[in-house]
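ARCHIVE CARD
Drawer: 12
Card no.: 0347
Subject: one protein chain, sequence and derived structure
Cross-reference: see card 0346
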Amino acid sequence: MKSISGRLFYIPTNRACESALSSYLLEAAQLASSQDAPVTFALIEAVDAPHVLAHSQILSRAVENPALRVIHLTAKAQDIFVPRLVEAAGFVGETAAKLNAMLLSQDVCYGAGPNKAALLAAALGADTLHRRDSDTAPIVVEGRPCYASELEARYVASNLGDFGNEIKNSDAVDPNSLILFVGSDYSGDLPVDRMELAELSIELMIEHDRLEHPGASREQNEESVRSYFLERNQESYSGDKIEVDMTGATELGVSCIHRVFLQLPEMPIPNTLGCDYFQKNLLYRLDSPVIYHNRRVGHRYSPERDTRSNGDQFVRYNLMDARYKLLWRIWSRHNRNMEAHVDELQNAPAGGLIDTEWYANSFETAARGISREELREIVGGLVAIYRQAFELSKGELKFNQLAEVLTSRSEHLIEDVLTGILDYTILIRAWPRLISAARESGYSI
């Protein structure tokens, strides 16, 4: 029998998203009408901007639904909610200032929204998060939205073995495993935008992948490029397909996670792709089933992500990708360490999933174990890719501009990532006290 204390359905956003907001309010309302545990909808704003007022007007109409509590966590509300929790958790001085800065950052920070959602969920007594990103929309089948939350609610917080052969690949995981994560992926625009390189040469894409997976064979790099970029959007929906995700296909922008966020925050490093995948990544290290379903959401790049015609945006986005490359080299070593010492990782206090102090120590050790020279070589590899792209494109200036920026900012990029890891370990160690303070304080603004 599954046990869920409450659900928080949320959208993290730094942009206007009236269409996504309206669509997902309807999904959350349907979820609330079908579940015994209370459901709250939250829109978590990253910035204070004119579009926030338009969002407020849409949310004000949704408040009329008595089955669904609605919270608009604006930047102003966060400036009250977060420092109050930091203080209630007993943090003062420089530590309090550091935590507030990480949790309230208005830079592009993919881990910030999920962390604020986690603290809000704890304050509401909820142990399950349903996330939808603001540049997505539910798929429509025969004129009706086909909601991912129906499957999320069915599977999350249940034992894998309860579903027999209903879930493909379930024999690869312990049937007594509790399902802590359910997700899908995108149709439409790809999660990571590198297709301009593919249009110039598949070899550029393969070299990109080699920098992320230097120990992989040529065939493995080719398969990674093929499955993630070249053939990702080819299968259309023709009925539900459920499986244990063995390839990492699930995306956070349409996902549901149970309890994990109460023990491990996401990484609050600014301007870095992929830093909101730490909770899901942990589950793979623990051989905990990540469930994939094919009720994908439509995904469209917003105008501010126009990397094709806007050279400045191209450089900005690919610097975020470069930081991810550097982060992943260290993160991969951390992963191998967790896999080699999984018993120590799981030596947690009663009721806990992992020993978070051990986790933080492991990540710090991984950061010390990768030399700056190895990290410089990653940046150098990216420079070579974009120099070649400049030549193959017959002089597309943005490729050369990016190569020059990567060269001049190499040390800064490395320092950004190393500092981000150390900051993350500070947040990990503070997280139990912050979650406890949220539970005790509740939510009222």
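Annotation on reverse: The first strand starts at residue 7 and ends at 13. The chain has two domains: 7-190+233-441, 192-232.
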